[in-house]
Design goal:
This protein is an alpha+beta fold. It is 46% helix and 14% strand. The radius of gyration is 25 Å and the shape is globular. It starts with 6 loop residues before the first strand and ends in an 11-residue tail after the last helix. The chain binds zinc ion.
């Protein structure tokens, strides 16, 4: 198993890595069939997120996939026909190479916007070559998404600026568009149409999470609700039908959650979504579980609208022990938070924490995936019913196995630092990620006058602030003697592990700049948070020194005690901002330390990673499930396999592989 392939290919700045779900085959048959239905429900919603991210995404994807599947001048549809029909009208190989590259990046990022910078990217070939390729594909039988009466040539004219003009819809999400510009108008995503922040004053959303807001020509505001019979009706009906199939195989607690989810997809009502959140949190023991719905709010510059996502996973029993300990001790951690005692939660409600292996992720969480998740996001439900937290063990594993050693060496100040990273980096980062999710996001309380909804007042600053809070909790407690007492850290190596984590965190603020190749602002919330924390520590403590050697910059962690003391001070401040909803303070914190960076430093970092051919981000090829049917068409087993081919998986999901029968 050690020599199986992880890194499959490099596409531009991205790495494509295969994900493995080793525990699947050992699941009881019932759980395998349950997983199969949930897997189909996950893929069934894939197009929702494409459409939310950009209103033109699906049309663009269709054009790209049709070119790719007809580029040989034959096309899947024409295969086996008479020789004459297979006119050798092939696409120029260099152009095809560029279009293939672009399409892979398009799939990885779910559209033409980089998932980290939110900036548009364009194909490496010119518009004329692209057009020739599309016309050749059309002659080979490609079906393009033309509007009624529109020729292929007209369609290509219409889409050309979307593919090639960087000034058309330049940013997917723009939380800091500059003085006098509106965050919604500057964001090209499809969560709003013709709506500015000013339009929202005095308008109360009935469906804050699951609707698109549209301003009609007469100035009237309307919520287009995502539900059966509403927006995304077709996809949601398919999801619901697969969820219904799953119910029969679910544990009683999970069946209650799935039924609540189905109801919430049918009505779209906030009360039903809350009922689902509660039922999902109360299902603590199922070996297989899913997240399926409108969940994270990073795509929305306001931080309110939920992006659709789905995960299906099973518990990894071997890795769950450590994270369960954290959850069991959640009240102890809460009582020792370094913030004002009035913001500590008196009765921490069951935080359920598991290490899991992902079988499939779609929408907002795949092919690029988080490593930990804590839900629900609803602050009131977390306070009253608790939350569930998962650490994605097989994602951690795949990252670890696909990271080149040069990555750590290049940015470490000493060989000892690089060795610590090599030896303890993965362990320390998995533990801090668990703390981030289990005792970070779930912790603290907010002032009653915020009605459990600090997002509304903290607006575009909220998500980055919340990520900072959770990161700081992990950094603060990894150095706490309590972790050794709980058996989570080996006493003998404790100092080394703490140092490895603090060093990696400091290095990351530098290394992550490679991901923002254009502009001088960080848009993505986790990146903003990490930039803010490290730059704040540099400015306000003696924990990190900025050093230079041979024209290269290093962030060197020199004092772990000062690091932890600074983290405690900053965490106290960050919690105060969240608890009181102090928008101005949040904004000042991020604009001073988290948003802007020195482009010369970024250029240096980019040159260093490019010289070593290191990726900026990673997308994953998911495991593939296939039902094995008996004579009467009933599922009698489910087989798992690993495609090792990103394009094939994407085309299969789109129903465009000759052999694929689209079951979702
Ligand atoms: Zn987080």
């Amino acid at each position: 198993m050690t020599d199986r392939p992880y890194l499959l290919e490099r596409v531009g700045e991205a790495a494509v890595v295969q994900l493995y779900a080793d525990g699947f085959e050992a699941l009881p048959l019932n759980d395998k069939i349950l997983t199969w239905h949930l897997y189909q429900a996950a893929i069934a919603g894939r197009d929702i997120y494409y459409d939310q991210r950009y209103a033109r995404n699906l049309e663009m994807r269709e054009v790209l996939e049709e070119i790719l599947t007809h580029a040989d001048g034959v096309g899947a549809a024409a295969q086996g026909g008479p020789y004459e029909s297979r006119a050798r009208d092939t696409v120029d190989p260099a152009t095809l190479g560029e279009i293939t590259n672009y399409t892979k990046l398009f799939w990885l990022n779910i559209g033409p916007y980089n998932n980290l910078t939110a900036r548009k990217f364009v194909p490496g070939c010119d518009a004329a070559s692209f057009r020739d390729a599309a016309l050749a594909a059309a002659r080979a039988g490609a079906k393009f998404p033309s509007r009624p009466g529109e020729t292929v040539a007209q369609l290509l004219d219409r889409l050309e600026p979307l593919f090639f003009d960087l000034s058309v819809d330049p940013l997917c999400t723009s939380k800091t568009p500059g003085a006098g510009r509106d965050i919604l108008e500057a964001s090209a995503n499809n969560l709003y149409r013709d709506v500015s922040m000013a339009d929202l004053e005095g308008f109360v959303e009935r469906y804050p999470i699951n609707s698109r807001l549209v301003k009609r020509a007469d100035g009237r505001m309307e919520e287009e609700v995502y539900r059966v019979g509403g927006m995304y009706d077709r996809e949601i009906r398919r999801i619901v039908s697969h969820l219904q199939d799953a119910v029969a195989f679910a544990t009683p607690a999970m069946a209650r959650a799935l039924e609540a989810l189905i109801r919430s997809y049918r009505t779209g009502e906030t009360g039903d979504r809350e009922a689902y959140d509660v039922a999902w949190v109360e299902d603590r023991d199922s070996a297989v579980d899913t997240i399926n719905g409108f969940v994270e709010v990073y795509l929305d510059a306001r931080g309110i609208k939920g992006a659709w996502e789905a995960l299906v996973y099973h518990v990894n029993p071997g890795k769950t022990a450590a994270i369960t300990t954290l959850a069991r001790e959640a009240q102890w951690f809460e009582d020792h938070m370094p913030w004002d005692p009035s913001w500590r939660k008196p009765g921490v409600k069951g935080v359920t924490a598991k290490a899991i292996d992902v079988v499939v992720e779609a929408g907002d969480c795949g092919p690029v995936t988080p490593v930990g998740i804590n839900l629900p996001n609803d602050q009131l439900i977390r306070e009253r019913h608790g939350s569930k937290s998962v650490s994605l063990s097989n994602v951690h594993e795949a990252y670890e196995k696909s990271t080149p050693p040069a990555f750590r060496r290049e940015f470490a100040w000493t060989p000892e630092e690089a060795e610590r990273a090599e030896r303890w980096g993965a362990f320390a980062s998995e533990l801090t990620t668990s703390m981030h999710e289990v005792i970070g996001h779930g912790s603290g309380r907010v002032d009653d006058r915020l009605n459990g909804n600090p997002q509304l007042v903290l607006k575009e600053q909220y998500s980055a602030l919340e990520e900072a809070r959770a990161d700081l909790v992990g950094l603060y407690f990894i150095a706490d003697p309590r972790l050794v007492e709980l058996g989570l850290l080996p006493a003998d190596n404790r100092d080394e592990i703490v140092a490895a984590e603090y060093e990696a965190y400091a290095r990351n603020a530098l290394v992550q700049l490679r991901r923002v190749r254009e502009g001088t602002q960080i848009e993505e919330d986790h990146m903003r948070n990490r930039q803010m924390v490290v730059r704040w520590l540099i400015a306000n403590t003696s924990a990190i020194e900025v050093r230079r050697r041979e024209g290269k910059t290093f962030y060197v962690m020199v004092d772990a005690t000062a690091f932890r003391e600074g983290v405690g001070r900053l965490l106290r401040e960050v919690q105060h901002i969240k608890s009181t909803g102090d928008y101005q303070a949040a904004r000042a914190l991020f604009e001073t330390y988290g948003v802007n960076f020195d482009p010369a430093l970024r250029d240096e970092v980019v040159a260093r990673v490019d010289a070593l051919n290191l990726p900026s981000y990673t997308g994953f090829v998911m495991p593939r499930l296939e039902p094995i049917l008996d004579e009467v068409g009933e599922v009698r087993d489910v087989a798992i396999s690993y495609p090792l081919d990103f394009a094939a998986q994407m085309l299969e999901y789109s129903g465009k592989l000759p052999a694929s029968n689209r079951v979702w």
